[in-house]
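Methods, example record. To illustrate the input and output format used throughout this study, we show the complete record for Acetyltransferase. The sequence lines were provided to the predictor; the line carrying structure tokens was produced by it.
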Amino acid sequence: MPNIAVTTWSLEQTAPTDLLPAQAPEGDVRIVRSEVPSPEFSRFLYASVGGDILWVDRLRWTYAQWQAHLERPGVETWVAYDRGTPAGYVELSPQDDGVVEIEYFGLIPAFRGRRIGGHLLSYGAARAWDLAERWPGLAQTKRVWLHTCSKDGEHAMDNYLRRGFKLFDTKVEEEAVVATPGPWSGAYPG
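The corresponding predicted structure is encoded as:
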């Protein structure tokens, strides 16, 4: 199987004032925290958002692995809804010493290009900064970080930079080419 070079960029904010929020999109777009750990719902979001951009790591997870991850203190899933339909999500994952990773962020393909992504990222980053307010025992957030790669959507990096994230690391690695899984077989050409 052939390999491709994949560039991964790591970006961060080191103060809440780094966040440059996007305007809310027009229409009935709401962002709601998914407070009940639901492996089914989280797997749906992961597969639906990442199916065309080769998010495959968690597709191998068992139900128990999903449940254990979602029940970790401070892990939060915030879901954007467009007129009641899930449009995308952001997953926050606390780490040591007041660091919060935006572990996953993205939109279901049908909702891209509608100005929802900037709003969702702004909201998710703000929730990363105030995570300790909702989770007693967690350290106050001192740093919010994420990574994106050359397989992600063409506007991902621009969105992160426009929201005030700063680049702090770049890596290039060879990866095996895999078929685009989609949320189910044949969902996306490729």
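Annotations derived from this record:
DSSP finds five helices and seven strands in the chain.
The chain has a mean pLDDT of 94.
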